């Protein structure tokens, strides 16, 4: 059983690496959320302004270019969960409380599903958020975000009710 779980996790990590190779990885901006700070972090002024004012927000992150998917060049039609596997994904410290709520919700789902099914359905997201995003914030930033209450993890935006275990 332990070998099967290790295989499922390894498969998710390998698939994650392949998707990031094709699409890029999220841009994580660790400090500051004013347009000037975001521009200083390398964003174009218009994108920085829109990000600072929440105009680019999705369920758990922000999208820097919804009209041009990195693989197709067309408007994005991916699930919000796949945002974490995209070069257009923008994450600021303001997104941390929602990301932590998402991880908590995924943890609850993990208890109600088979491990194999959970890794197939949510493994890529879990790896991306844990490795590519949370690891770029300081423990103090994560601890502060954990204090903020988020009423809903918004998983209903990505899962049809009949698919929820």
Name its key features.
mainly alpha; 165 residues; globular
What is the percentage of strand-forming residues?
A: 5-15%
Q: What is the count of helical runs? A: 6
Structural class category: mainly alpha
Query: What's the arrangement of strands in the largest beta sheet?
Result: 1-3-2
Rg (CA only): 16 Å
Brief digest:
With 165 residues, the protein is mainly alpha-helical. The chain is built from 6 helices and 3 strands. The chain is globular, with a radius of gyration of 16 Å.
Walk me through this protein's architecture.
The protein is mainly α and 165 residues long. Helix content is 49%, strand content 5%. It contains 6 helices and 3 strands; from the N terminus they run αβααββααα. A 3-stranded mixed beta sheet has the order 1-3-2, with no helix packed on it. Helix 1 packs across helix 5 and helix 4 runs antiparallel to helix 5. The longest helix has 22 residues. The mean pLDDT is 84.
SSE layout and pairings?
Blueprint: H1 2-23, E1 27-29, H2 35-40, H3 45-52, E2 62-63, E3 89-92, H4 96-112, H5 115-133, H6 139-147
Parallel strand pairs: 1-3
Antiparallel strand pairs: 2-3
Helix pairs in contact: 1-5, 4-5
């Amino acid at each position: 059983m332990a070998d099967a779980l290790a295989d499922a996790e390894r498969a998710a990590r390998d698939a994650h690496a392949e998707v990031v190779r094709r699409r890029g990885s999220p841009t994580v901006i660790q400090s500051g959320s004013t347009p000037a700070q975001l521009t200083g972090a390398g964003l174009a002024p218009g994108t920085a302004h829109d990000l600072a004012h929440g105009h680019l927000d999705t369920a758990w992150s922000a999208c820097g270019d919804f009209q041009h998917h990195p693989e197709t060049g067309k408007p994005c039609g991916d699930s919000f969960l796949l945002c974490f596997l995209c070069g257009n994904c923008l994450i600021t410290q303001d997104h941390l409380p929602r990301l932590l709520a998402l991880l908590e919700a995924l943890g609850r789902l993990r208890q109600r599903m088979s491990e194999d099914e959970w890794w197939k359905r949510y493994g890529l997201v879990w790896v991306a958020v844990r490795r590519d995003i949370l690891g770029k914030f300081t423990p103090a930033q994560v601890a502060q975000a954990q204090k903020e209450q988020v009423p809903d993890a918004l998983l209903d935006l990505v899962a049809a009710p009949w698919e929820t275990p």
